[in-house]
Please model this.
Amino acid sequence: MDSDDEQLLRGRIYGADHDQPGPKPGRSYAELVGGPLDGLLLDITGWRPEQTGDGVSLRTELGQFGPGGRALYDPRPGDPARWDWGGDSP
Model:
């Protein structure tokens, strides 16, 4: 991925439609930091802490394993608005 691709992803919502890519009022988001989804926002509206304690596995074609692979992100301790990349999985 080059810098143009990275700029395109910044501020977009993970999994959102291309014609509605940005944040919506009244929703809660966490910024994905590092890894293949760096800069994307994850909609965590209504998620309880016990649902996110172990982090998430997000499908992506941009990671080490290509199509069908997943990127692993965990909430940053003390900063639940940022989730840090922990690696990729098949």
